[in-house]
Structures are given as structure tokens and as C-alpha cells.
Specification:
- The complex is a heterodimer of chains A (about 110) and B (about 120).
- Chain A is about 0% helix and about 55% strand.
- Chain A contains no helices and 12 strands.
- In chain A, strands 2, 5, 6, 10, 11 and 12 form a 6-stranded mixed beta sheet that branches. A 4-stranded antiparallel beta sheet of chain A has the order 3-9-8-7, with no helix packed on it. A two-stranded antiparallel ribbon of chain A has the order 1-4.
- Helices cover about 0% and strands about 50% of the residues of chain B.
- In chain B, strands 2, 4, 5, 6, 9, 10 and 11 form a 7-stranded mixed beta sheet that branches.
- The termini of chain B are far apart.
- Classes of the chains: A mainly beta (about 110), B mainly beta (about 120).
- At the A-B interface, strand 5, strand 6 and strand 11 of A face strand 4, strand 5 and strand 9 of B.
């Protein structure tokens, strides 16, 4: 079974500052990794994903994440945040070669202020 | 436009009154799934379907039923809703073929309140 830990439930940050949202996972098998964003009163939208290849993955809206197999982490970063980045961010894992179960973390609320 | 639609978006009902939340996708995806989102718990899978007439339980299936008679539709049925099923529900679909993206596409959500 897989599990995902997002230790920070809330991350406050000022506009134009850098941000890192942490994600650690546990799995006995290989996994694919995803970050989803949920804007207020909306569904989930894919930010980026790691399936294979380069461990540094770039996504939409200037976000990027780095897969670290030895530390079982997939932290999300953005060098300069905007007010519009205020949202809930979810890390998720999927067992490779399957689609049966996307396991989510509990989410991190990113609050960007002026 | 490729999308997953859910209806209704908002629903307030009473304990024990059967209800159905519909989900439809226009991307010809084989895989569909239902999740519920609760504060502090993230999203938890209720049921999923790998294809027509193939469904299986997720992490929290108690009190829910599903059916997959057509590839595009995957309704969620609450035979006798209870207050602990008050939640935000999401339907998702994907196409998990070899070489595919494995990305799940989510509907806009259905906010259900059971009194």
C-alpha cells in the first residue's frame, strides 16, 4: 500500500517570495507522482507529474518539483509566488502501470498575501 | 472540450432519502473513480471502475453503490444517506494505457449535505 505525507497543512507566504511545499511518500513498489491544485470552489487541476526520466519536472504556472527516490520525496517549488497561487495543493501517488488507486496527501493550503 | 461533468453541483437532502450523483466524461476514458474530500483528510477513493461492468471498492465504500453500464457514465448512488456522508464528492477519469499520461481528470465536484 502507498501513503503520502504533507506535513504542512498551511503555508503563509508573501507575494513574490519563493515557496516550497513538502511531500513525502511511502511505497513498497514503484510509483508515479503528481501534484494537483484546487482553487476555491473548483475541482482539481493537474500541476505536474513524474512518470519517469528527469527527476526535475516542470509544470504549469511556473511550478516545478523534484523527485528524490532516496528520500522518497517530491517537493513542489516556485521561485516567486503570486496572489493567484492561493489554493490548496495535493500531492498524490499512483502505483506504476496501474490506474486503480490514486492516493492523496491531506493537502497544503498556500496563502499568498501582499 | 474534454471534460468530466457532475450533477448536481449542490445537494441538500435528509437522512434516508435515496439519491444519485451523476458523472459523465467525453474523453472515452476506460477508468473512472469517485472520491470524497473532507477537511484534514484529503481525498479518499470510494469506488473505481476499470471499464464497463467492472467496478471495485476503494478505501471508503461503505454506504455507497456504483454502476458502469456505459463507458462515459459512472453514477454514485447513496441508498440511505446519513449525516456522515456530508462531504464534497469528485468524479475522475483517466486512460491508463501503456504510454499514457495516467493523469486523472476531475469533475467540478458535488457538495452534499445530509441533515
Amino acid at each position: 500500500a502507498q501513503s503520502v505525507t504533507q506535513l504542512d497543512s498551511q503555508v503563509p507566504v508573501f507575494e513574490e517570495a519563493p515557496v516550497e511545499l513538502r511531500c513525502n511518500y511511502s511505497s513498497s513498489v514503484s510509483v508515479y507522482l503528481f501534484w494537483y491544485v484546487q482553487y476555491p470552489n473548483q475541482g482539481l487541476q493537474l500541476l505536474l507529474k513524474y512518470l519517469s526520466g528527469s527527476t526535475l519536472v516542470k509544470g504549469i504556472n511556473g511550478f516545478e518539483a523534484e523527485f528524490n527516490k532516496s528520500q522518497t520525496s517530491f517537493h513542489l517549488r516556485k521561485p516567486s509566488v503570486h496572489i493567484s497561487d492561493t489554493a490548496e495543493y495535493f500531492c498524490a501517488v499512483l502505483r506504476t502501470g496501474t490506474a486503480s488507486k490514486l492516493t492523496f496527501g491531506t493537502g497544503t493550503r498556500l496563502q499568498v498575501t501582499l | 472540450e474534454a471534460q468530466v461533468t457532475q450533477n448536481p453541483r449542490y445537494l441538500i437532502t435528509v437522512t434516508g432519502k435515496k439519491l444519485t450523483v451523476t458523472c459523465s466524461q467525453n474523453m472515452n476514458h476506460e477508468y473512472m473513480s469517485w472520491y470524497r474530500q473532507d477537511p484534514g483528510l484529503g481525498l479518499r477513493q470510494i469506488y473505481y471502475s476499470m471499464n464497463v461492468e467492472v467496478t471495485d471498492k476503494g478505501d471508503v465504500p461503505e454506504g455507497y453503490k456504483v454502476s458502469r453500464k456505459e463507458k462515459r457514465n459512472f453514477p454514485l448512488i447513496l441508498e440511505s444517506p446519513s449525516p456522515n456522508q456530508t462531504s464534497l464528492y469528485f468524479c475522475a477519469s483517466s486512460s491508463p494505457r501503456a504510454g499514457g499520461s495516467y493523469e486523472q481528470y476531475f469533475g467540478p465536484g458535488t457538495r452534499l449535505t445530509v441533515t
